[in-house]
Amino acid sequence: MIEPFVQAVNGRHDYARQWKARTGGRVVGYLCTYVPEELLYAAGMLPVRVLGSHQPQDVTEPHIFSIFCPFCRDVLAQGLQGRYSYLDGLVKARSCMHIRNTFTSWQKHIPLPFSYYIGMPAIPQLGAARDFLVGELGAFKEALEGWTGQPITEAALSEAVEVYNANRCLMRQLYQTRRAERPPISGEEAMYVALASQVMDKREHSALLSDLLSGLDSRPDPPQPGVRLMLVGTENDDADLVALMESKGGLVVADDHCSGSRYFWNDVAPDGDLLRAIATRYIERPRCPAKDIPQRQRLEHVVGIARDYDVQGVVLLQQKFCEPFEYEIPPLQARLREEGIPSLFLEYDLAMNVGPMSSRIEAFLEMIELEI
Amino acid sequence: MTVAQYESRPLECFQRGQELRQEHWRNVMSAREQGKLLIDGYVLFPVALCAGLGDVVPFGTDVYAANVANNTEFSIRALETVEARGFARDTCGYFRNDVGSMFMDQYLFGGPYPRPDIIFTPHDCEARGRWYQVKAEHLGVPIFIVEVPLADPGFRTQARIDYLVAQFQEGIQWMERVTGRKYDDERLLQATDITLQSQKLWAEICLLNGAVPAPMNVRSKASIMAVPLMRRHEPVALEFLKTLRDEMKYRVDNKIAAVASERARVMTDQMPPWYAISGVKYTEMFYGAVWVGMWTYARLLGLFQVTADGGLEPGLTPQERGRPLRTREDALKALAELVLFSLVDMYNTQAKIDDLLRFARAWHCDGVILHFNRSCPGEAVGLSEAKLALKEAGLAVGSYESSAQDPREGGMTEMVESFERIMAVMGLQKL
Ligand code: SF4
Ligand code: SF4
User: Measured between beta carbons, which residues in chain B are less than 8 angstroms from residue A121?
Assistant: First the structure.
């Protein structure tokens, strides 16, 4: 059932090349899920998220200081190694400075026909943020039109919004099934489905996902029950790590990651002015840890998910040196303690083998089992 | 080799700079008694914005954190306190020193940690907003954070200025609400005018150091710059900067050097750690390699403009460009431009490279020493690329790593070794 999604993720470069050959369209990489993909899609392009390769590398040292996170270095490494040679463009929206290093080094050393930085507000809570983002989206739209020589029509944008909303809705339905006492899908599988949506044409992904959803109830081999876990952090596309947790008696039932639930949490609500509606969606999206100031709004969001999904333990997964998340960990742990939800803090480097984390995960799961 | 010997003597206004600095720390402690509002936030964000509330004292937080880091015993206690509360050791070193002092409720200069009345700060690097969020939560102080809208230089500049102005307007309404004070535009206009003049003077002072021999070195500059950093909206700072500028001019005209044996010149991107100050002195004494400038503090604090031939000169204030400051909007726009043309370029790789090259030329540098500071991810943005680009541009470039705000990570010997290597790259033998 999950195989097509696994294939799409593991074979994402082939998928993008084939899509390009098939449609004649342009493929645009993006480095942060605050990039409003709807505009790219409306321009007839395939937006693909640059995910981690999870492989050791030695090519970024001259370009990025070692105190920046391994994810941003892994992404640049893949660019420098030519794995994304099929990209026609690269887009970044403001998130954190670590990945901005990647973006600027990519621009400098891997020339592309098109690259663009969107000033996604760093503080969406600000009253002035929405208007500013509407202006930024307008400029981005113009830049895309200038690149292709074709206008992005209202009809195309409206259709893109529909396609994206439909996919988000299906993803939410899939996640909802995990609230059940016996979820029909494992955390590892759900991660593949979510990641596939970030590298596939949304229409094709939605078709596969609809099929998956219709067959889930009658699935002959649902995952074994386990300690109900939630993953919280920034970017996480490490299916091996989830598989490790699940092989030790856990079952990941929820997450708060930009590669997971934050990606499809809310829809664009069209209200006449489509750019404003798109801006509103990104402003109101559950915050990334890099944008949760001055009031902390994430803590209640995380606790809310944990309650809804009957979570028994939360794993705080931090890419080494990930500043945005580092400043959140102590208050988040304290808030979870107040709720009586145990948490495990795991600092990790996505290019390293996940094996060494095994004993800590096991101990955490045992501790929860003893308490249940 | 014959080494030129210049006349050298300490800056005459140095002592006055120290007095003003110490007075500032006393003002922080006694702000409330004096009926002044204590404003916490990034020291390089124009405090003039808060001046409309009446008499204000900026906390000078970053300079305070640097002072904490310079006191090994106090700093270690502060760092351990923060870490015991779960904050990682690789978070911003300034954050850990300042917030550690707050958690201990100990002010480095005596007494309990001063409680600010409000926090009004920008968010530029990843640490900044989070740092003050932690303070606001712990101290129960109202907080407003302004986003610095990062972009490539020249990209949608007007939209970014408008965005900053809109946020400043939002911030003023917020200040009135949380302090119960009426915002006085006249005071804003006055403080803005002084800020602009101070920053222009700082640019002049920095550029005067392009003279050979350099009239001031980085060590003196580091001690003196606390005044423009923390008090640049005050008439007393303006007066001091005028005196300093005049003294610099006199020294240039009369070839009075910071270092008598100057024979080579280096610049750095950012402040060396305090424990390396003797290493800086070492290159000056034994190699005649004078540290003539620090890019960050020139760039962030100075009002510069780029000349037609790509050089640098003190920038024109809005008034000098025919835009008098008459209304709140005029002042807010002027301050937005200051923020945009300094902070934004800090985090832009190409802007950083271009600007480092401009300063290297303006200061007639033979070499550039880049400081890879593990305590400050913010300033490290684009630094590796800058190193490659400066080398490509034909400059002698050296670098060293430190954790400048964490005295537990010392490493003075390694640092001196790095400096020795850089001297060799520059082809310098010991005097
Ligand atoms: S948010 Fe964290 S993990 Fe993501 S790029 Fe930034 S530092 Fe790296
Ligand atoms: S610029 Fe550096 S020292 Fe300053 S707040 Fe950011 S990380 Fe900390």
Answer: 147, 149
- In the three-class reduction of DSSP (H, G, I as helix; E, B as strand; rest coil), residue A217 is classed as coil
CB-based contact, B372 to chain A, within 8 Å: yes
Residue B381 CA: distances (Å) to CA of A55, A101, A142, B124, B402: 24, 6, 29, 12, 15
Kindly determine whether residue A100 and residue B381, on different chains, have CB atoms separated by under 8 Å: yes
Please tell me which residue, A81 or B411, carries the higher pLDDT value. Answer: A81
pLDDT in tens, B81-120: 999 999 999 999 999 999 999 999 999 999 999 999 999 9
- Record: contact A294-B133, CB cut-off 8 A: yes
Name residue B159's amino acid: A
Nearest to A336 by CA among B134, B86, B90, B138: B86
CA-closest candidate to residue B188, choices B35, B58, B53: B53
Chain A CB within 8 Å of residue B170 CB:
yes
By three-state DSSP, how is residue B239 classified?
A: helix
Counting ligands in written order, which one lies closest to the CA of residue B90?
2
CA–CA gap between residue A328 and residue A77 (Å, rounded): 28
Q: pTM of the prediction?
A: 0.96
What is the number of residues in chain A? 372
Supply angle C-alpha A322, A246, A186, rounded to 5.
95
Query: A5 by DSSP, 3-state: which?
Result: helix
Contact B70, B352 (CB under 8 A): no
Q: Find the A354 Cα to ligand 1 centroid distance in Å.
A: 18
CA A75 from centre of chain: 14
Structure token pair of residue B376 = 């400050």
ipTM for the whole complex: 0.95
